[in-house]
Amino acid sequence: MSTAALLAGLAVFALLSMMGNGGVKPRHRLDEMTGGQRLLSGLGLYSAVALHGYAIVYATDRLFS
Questions:
Q1: Is 9 a domain residue?
Q2: Is the pTM of this model over 0.90?
Q3: Would you list the DSSP string of 13-49?
Q4: Which residues contact 34 (CB under 8 A, 6 or more apart)?
Q5: Residues spanned by the domain of 44
Q6: Residues 37-46: pLDDT tens digits?
Q7: Which of 26, 27, 31, 40 has the most CB atoms in a 10 Å sphere around its CB?
Q8: With contact defined as beta carbons under 8 Å apart, do 3 and 63 qualify?
Q9: Is residue 22 situated within a structural domain?
Q10: Are the CB atoms for 4 and 12 separated by under 8 Å?
Q11: What span, in angstroms and rounded, lies between the C-alpha atoms of 8 and 33?
């Protein structure tokens, strides 16, 4: 694939990710998270951000070198 096509696809996905759906409310009240659940959720978020950040750096390195 050409560089222009890859950058266009990246731009489309970036714009789609920035669009919000609006306020969706659950039907029933949610249970409060415990401290352990908060810790595991935070670690999961951190690992997902780190993995995606590394993937972006790797992809741009392969794309432009």
A1: no
A2: no
A3: HHHHHH--------SSPPPPPPHHHHHHHHHHHHHHH
A4: none
A5: 35-65
A6: 999 999 999 9
A7: 40
A8: yes
A9: no
A10: no
A11: 40
